Amino acid sequence: MSQNSPYQQLQNQLEQVVEELEITPSVFQILKEPKHVVRISIPLQRDDGTVETYTGYRSLHSDLLGPGKGGIRFHPNVNEDEVMALSVWMTMKTAILKLPFGGAKGGIQVDPNDLSKRELQELSRQYIRMLEHVIGPQKDIPAPDVNTNGRIMGWMLDEFTRLRGRNVPGFITGKPPVIGGSEGRVEATGRGVVVTILRALEKMDMEKKGAKVAIQGFGNVGSVTAKRLNEEGLKVVAVADVNGMLYDEEGIDVLELCEYVEENGSIEGFQNQELKPSDGIFETDCDIFIPAALENVITSETAPKLKASIVAEAANGPTTGDGDHILKERDIFVIPDILCNSGGVMVSAFEWMQNDSHDHWEKDFVVQRLDKDLSEAFREVYKISQEKNIAMRKAAYQVAVNRLSDAMYERGWVEG
After folding, report:
1. So where does substrate get bound (predicted)?
2. Helices (H) and strands (E) in the chain — how many of each?
3. How many other CB atoms are found less than 10 A from the CB of residue 331?
């Protein structure tokens, strides 16, 4: 494993947190490796009769606090190191939020745009068939992630139901509501990003009305975040995707942009505006910068260019170690990914609870509880950061590792 791999960097981070908390090194020994990582080879008969093989993964990092929880992504760059790292982040998120879950993640190395609808459904079902022995509502609960959605979750639920011979809605979350999904799940991650931004503005005594926002990435999370911030009176002045950047000092018409992207799949061509280069987003004059796309975009090269007071990490792992160091030196307030984008797993937990009790919560109740529980988690992390004079990222990891350490002690895994 490369010393610069995401998973190796996470291991180093966890070891440092355990040392700083002055708890037994045994905690790090337990957290440093997943409970298991399954690698599968999935044969798929294509529509033309040929057979192609795709590589899939499922990493269960921890089930210390409950069954594993984590999404399934379909992307050409999915690999074992990435899936392992993402499963650790899920363990940290669920611990911070006090959810009855551990951390997991999975994926298939594929570009779903290259598949027909039939091929995509068959690949999704094959993935479940080959992993049926390690997943389930009390073992490891999948959910949507990059390039997967409620429709794919429905196919996977149907396959798992066939294998078990009975309906098991709590096996997977992110389903359409008609088959047991929760109201508010699709926009949950974006809503959570906004909740943490509003709490940060309060703590920093910054006025939200008219605060300028730049968003890198305009998929589900970026677009929902933009709409919600717009409703709260903030002003989205810049949006970037792979094709370029839109900029309007007076504020972009977010609702119209969201409708346009829904129909066209990109910001390109919106209102016939000429796009600026995508990397210009890092130099945008704004109060809040939101990376909502890829990993490792705030680096030693881009971090010095940022003009924002707040960075809200809507994506997983958007900041490199060097980039994070520069943000700290520049005194930029960072809402770390394991807190900022955890709204999705929180509403997934709500969905699992509803399935378990055969209940269905109204959307207003889901939204209110998301706001309450995530605000509480933010305040706990912020309190630690202030008491110890440490960055929010370090405080978030300390909250998570402390909770995991306490659970290990109570289970008899480690000595106090």
Report:
1. 69, 93, 348
2. 13, 12
3. 8
- Rg of the chain (C-alpha set): 21
CB 65 within 8 A of CB 407: yes
Q: 3-class SS at 313?
A: coil
Distances (CA, A) of 190 to 221, 260, 314: 5, 18, 8
The model's pTM: 0.93
Task: Say if residues 64 and 22 touch (Cβ distance below 8 Å).
Answer: no
Question: Is 348 annotated as contributing to ligand binding?
Answer: yes
What's the confidence (pLDDT) of residue 4?
Answer: 61
Per-residue pLDDT tens over the stretch 341-365: 999 999 999 999 999 999 999 999 9
Q: What distance in Å separates the CA atoms of residue 78 and residue 245, rounded to the nearest whole number?
A: 26
DSSP calls for 39-82: EEEEEEE-TTS-EEEEEEEEEEEE-SSSSEE--EEEETT--HHH
Say whether 220 counts as a known binding-site residue: yes
232: left (phi over 0), alpha (psi -120 to 50) or beta: alpha
| Enzyme catalytic residues | 105
Task: Report how far apart, in Å, the C-alpha atoms of 289 and of each of 58, 222, 292, 356 are.
Answer: 32, 11, 9, 38
Give me the residue label for tokens 């004079």: 389
Q: Could you say which residues of the chain have pLDDT below 70?
A: 1-4
Tell me: is residue 93 an annotated ligand-binding position: yes
347's tokens: 């509403």
355 labelled ligand-binding: no
Q: Round to whole Å and give the CA distance between 314 and 250.
A: 24
Six token digits for residue 121: 């459904």
Q: What is the pLDDT of residue 238?
A: 97
pLDDT digits (tens, 9 = 90+) for 390-414: 999 999 999 999 999 999 999 999 9
The answer to the question of whether 149 is labelled as a binding residue is no
Report all structural domains of the chain as residue ranges with CATH numbers, in order of start: 34-167 (3.40.50.10860), 188-335 (3.40.50.720)
DSSP codes of every residue in 334-382: EE-HHHHTTHHHHHHHHHHHHHHHT----HHHHHHHHHHHHHHHHHHHH
- CB under 8 Å to 271, separation ≥6 — which residues? 253, 256, 260
Q: Is 411 exposed, middle or buried (0-12, 13-18, 19+ CB in 10 A)?
A: exposed
